[in-house]
Design a protein that fits this description.
Rossmann fold, NAD(P)-bd_dom, 9 strands, 2 domains, alpha/beta, about 280 residues, 10 helices, globular
Length: about 280
């Protein structure tokens, strides 16, 4: 049987594909741009859009499990096609589903949790990959400019998210579970900047912005007003789940969660001057 991965070219989707392949699974990857997917040759890449279920006929055929994202369109707007997608999956005999939690209840997640499939909800906190947003400034000025630099984050490696999804999709015992996925430590912006500095072999200075300065900076960068407001709210008052280490990752994977230090070493070239 085949495992279907939606959002397969995204930050987490690519990791889900990689982890499933490592387990010897057959993988079908759904993406809006099959020609630019850049996935391994053994992956069956199919084109399609979760916002347009009428174009997904046959996508669920022969599928035993599906990894679902809950957003579509601009600014990660929640998918409104959940009922139809779940109906198609159940009609095709899909047995298991993982749902990547996107920050709130969505029609798709609600439909999956009401379905007859063995579902698992994955609730990752801040992705370590979010630090790539600092890369241009660090390359240019060796500086990170952020508000609330003492804020705490139990950020999680995207590889761990993918590995947890692969476990839930291929092993028994995870039906009806919701897992909060974190890293093994709680870090400030200063901690993250120091890890990046060690990884690239050059210092990184932290410049703390006032909330007003951050707002104007993000607006100038073209961020939508609702995104700016959301970031200021979350950074200024991080939910307890986002700043508390959870043991779900080591329980699921049988090994410690990956540290930000490891992530920084893996991505050191992104923060090194001269990268395109």
């Amino acid at each position: 049987m085949t495992v279907l991965v939606t959002g397969a070219t995204g930050t987490v989707g690519r990791q889900v594909v990689t982890e499933l392949l490592a387990r010897g699974e057959q993988v079908r990857a759904l993406t809006r741009n099959p020609d630019g997917a850049g996935l391994p040759g053994e992956v069956e890449v199919v084109g399609g859009d979760l916002t347009e279920p009428e174009g997904l006929e046959g996508v669920f055929d022969g599928v035993s499990g599906v990894h679902l994202i809950t957003f579509g369109g601009e600014l990660f707007a929640p998918l409104e096609t959940g009922e139809r997608l779940v109906a198609m999956a159940e009609a095709a005999g899909v047995r298991r589903a993982t749902v990547l939690f996107g920050g709130g209840e969505t029609p798709l997640q609600e439909a999956v949790c009401r379905s007859g499939m063995e579902w698992t909800v994955l609730m990752p906190v801040e992705f370590m990959a979010n630090a790539l947003e600092w890369a241009p400034e660090i390359r240019a000025t060796s500086t990170v400019s952020e508000p609330f630099t003492g804020r705490l984050s139990a950020m999680v490696h995207e590889r761990d998210i993918g590995a947890c999804a692969a476990v839930a999709l291929t092993e028994e015992g995870h039906a009806g579970q919701t897992y909060t996925l974190t890293g093994p430590e709680v870090l400030t912006v200063h901690d993250k900047a120091a890890a990046i500095a060690r990884a690239r072999g050059a210092g990184v200075r932290v410049d703390e912005l006032t909330p007003g300065e951050a707002r104007e900076r993000w607006r100038a960068a073209g961020m939508a007003e609702e995104v700016v407001g959301f970031l200021l709210e979350v950074y200024g008052d991080t939910p307890v789940e986002g700043r508390t280490v959870d043991r779900a990752v080591p329980r699921l994977l049988g090994r410690p969660a990956l540290r930000f230090e490891e992530w920084a070493r893996e991505h050191a070239d992104w923060f090194t001057p001269g990268r395109p």
